[in-house]
Automatic annotation (TrEMBL):
InterPro entries: 6-blade_b-propeller_TolB-like, Ig-like_fold, PhoX, Secre_tail
Coiled coil (UniProt feature): none
Record-linked Pfam families: PhoX, Por_Secre_tail
Secretion system C-terminal sorting domain boundaries: 540-608
Protein name: DUF839 domain-containing protein
Superkingdom of origin organism: Bacteria
Phylogenetic classification of the source organism: Bacteria, Pseudomonadati, Bacteroidota, Chitinophagia, Chitinophagales
């Protein structure tokens, strides 16, 4: 699936098992386990939710689904101010670019401007299944299409998908590398089922991987002009199962026909099939590391130009002791090694797609004889970790939790105090606790907090053990990310009730309590989720009404719709039956003035709302 990379220059690195400083790789392995509904991290670390699928950006656009590459692009080398490029691995892919910054006081990340990158169809056709990518030394990003399913739909001579694309996050635009006509995909780099890409610090060589069972090749591209990937020589790696060394076989890539058929040309040239090559990364030692997902192995080699040497298995798929003399039994590495990234000490972070969907950390001096592997994280149920990148100071790890189960309901509090439910793809940042958030515990005086639906309202009830603040502010969200205040309740007792009778049109609503203690400290309750997907919210307007009453249901209906008007005495005034719709009008001009009730029945249930006839 995904992976990302940071280019490391002149880094001094030491074993994660010997490091004395409190770096992001300073932690004790977590206990191996199967997935629950929560994200499991070491006790020394925490996370903050940045954004989730379908969140609305300042541009008015929404974040895509199946979030993958999560590339932090520093502005002027900053570890606290940059862009976050988030790819969407879906049909008709997307890439959202957010401006993010770290508040030095709260130690929390905030989102500024944000929007989606436009991909002009006339220039490049459709874009599809963005998977991994890389943060380039020039401040751009590359994203990779992990599919070859499409044809040439825009009739430009190139099959639409299976390419690498370069994006400028500052302008949120695709780069026109050749300077001719419109923007381009990187045609000269060839069409494959791209997983990932990485390059040398001077952008004179790029390497990438192909996630393909029968054509899992490793490629290299040498641009004619470093940093401009529109023209150059393309190669595929040839070796044998004995490994040790290999040869770069040049692949024809001058014409559109040659570029469309890179996979066939690589096979004809004798390229070696590593079987589903996914994450690829350049290590601090200058070697190229890549993951073969089917076997679970991590390979590495030293590039000599026309040939490679030291081609070997760096991490084998076997059982590892992750806690030294600790109580945990050896843990199976399994298959699914996917995204890769190196931290500032040279530790290799391995995100697993399949197996147990773990995040592993491998020390730079790891060997088969003296293995050094630790277990960092377990993903929420149904999800895999994707898109790893680091801030330049390596204090902050950015990634996404991709495709968790929509049925997940358990919430956990992030560093910002938000109650996070991993039921949609979510981009997050992870750090040691001292570097992220104030880590303020929830007030112990809140003893219960419940939310339930009641007709066309949501009722909140909560209790406290003591009075420790002036008031509660009730906040509501339609996406679980951006909350708005919808009311306040003074704390004059120990039991409280609030009724939200102005529900927005949404399938899920999220509620939380904001408390300001007498010492001025702001804390939040856990978030409660109300699912109203099966019970349509009934909206009537205008009210009072004189002629046409507009009826609106929040959800699409199936079958027939029955609309019955009754008066305040419960007497039926009229009844209409119509075909399935969630928007219609009722003429009430002849009704006497007064209060009435409309009962709407559909296959999905019954809803009632009142209106006033003037």
């Amino acid at each position: 699936m995904l992976y990302r990379k940071e280019l490391v220059l002149g880094v001094f690195y030491f074993s994660i098992f010997q490091a004395s400083s409190q770096t992001i790789a300073t932690f004790n392995s977590i206990q191996p386990a199967v997935q629950t509904q929560n994200l499991v991290l070491p006790a020394t670390h925490t996370f903050q939710r940045i954004v989730r699928s379908n969140s609305t950006l300042l541009s008015g656009e929404t974040v895509g689904i199946n979030l993958d590459f999560t590339g932090y692009v520093p502005i002027s080398g900053s570890s606290s101010n940059g862009y976050l490029s988030i790819s969407s691995e879906r049909v008709y892919a997307g890439a959202a670019i957010l401006s993010i910054s770290l508040n030095p006081t709260t130690k929390l990340w905030t989102i500024g401007d944000g929007g989606n990158v436009p991909f002009p169809f006339s220039d490049i056709g459709y874009v599809n299944a963005f998977c991994a990518g890389t943060v380039m030394p020039n401040g751009h990003v590359m994203v990779c299409e992990e599919t070859m399913a499409g044809a040439d739909y825009n009739s430009d001579g190139y099959n639409d998908d299976g390419w690498i694309i370069e994006i400028d996050p500052a302008s949120r635009t695709v780069i026109n590398q050749d300077g001719v006509g419109g923007v381009d995909k990187l045609w000269a780099m060839g069409r494959q089922k791209h997983e990932d890409v990485v390059m040398t610090p001077d952008m004179s060589v790029a390497y990438w991987s192909a996630d393909n069972d029968t054509a899992g090749y490793v490629y290299k591209f040498v641009p004619a002009v470093p940093g401009n990937f529109s023209v150059g020589n393309l190669y595929a790696l040839q070796t044998t199962s004995s490994l040790g060394g290999g040869t770069w076989q040049q692949i024809p890539n001058t014409t559109a026909a040659e570029q469309n058929n890179t996979t066939t040309s690589a096979k004809d040239a004798g390229a070696y099939n590593f079987v589903r090559v996914e994450g690829i990364e350049r290590g601090p030692d200058g070697k190229i590391y890549f993951a073969a997902t089917t076997s679970g192995r991590i390979y590495r080699f030293n590039d000599l130009g026309n040939t490679v040497d030291q081609l070997e298995v760096f991490v084998e798929s076997t059982d590892y002791d992750v806690d030294g003399a600790g109580p945990y039994p050896p843990v199976a590495w399994g298959n699914g090694a996917d995204n890769l990234a190196f931290d500032g000490e040279g530790n290799l972070w391995v995100l697993q797609d399949g197996g147990n969907d773990y995040i592993w950390v491998v020390a730079p001096d790891h060997t088969a004889v003296a293995p050094k592997v630790k277990l960092f994280a377990i993903m929420p149920g149904g999800s895999e970790p994707t898109g790893i990148t680091f801030s330049p100071d390596y204090k902050y790890l950015f990634m996404s939790v991709q495709h968790p189960n929509n049925s997940n309901t358990s919430s956990q509090t992030d560093a910002a105090g938000n109650a996070v439910v991993f039921d949609e793809s979510t981009a997050i940042v992870i750090a040691r606790q001292e570097n992220l958030g104030a880590n303020v515990p929830l007030p112990v005086n809140l003893t219960s907090f419940e939310a339930r639906t009641e007709k066309n309202t949501v009722e909140l009830n909560w209790k406290t053990a003591s009075i420790s603040n002036d008031e509660f502010t009730i906040e509501r969200s339609i996406n679980g990310v951006h909350f708005d205040a919808i009311g306040t309740v003074k704390q004059l007792a120990s039991s409280f009730r609030f009724v939200d009778d102005k529900l927005p049109l949404a399938n899920n609503l999220y509620y939380r309590l904001r408390q300001k203690d007498k010492d001025g400290k702001i804390v939040y309750s856990e978030t409660k989720t109300i699912n109203i997907e099966k019970q349509s919210i009934l909206r009537l307007f205008p009210s009072p009404v004189s002629d046409k009453l507009i009826v609106q249901l929040s959800n699409a209906t199936t079958g027939q719709v029955s609309a019955t008007i009754i008066n305040a005495a419960g007497v039926t005034i009229s009844r209409q039956v119509r075909s399935a719709t969630n928007n219609f009008e009722i003429h009430v001009k002849e009704l006497p003035a007064g209060t009435y009730y409309l009962i709407v029945e559909t296959a999905e249930g019954k809803s009632t709302a009142s209106f006033t006839k003037k």
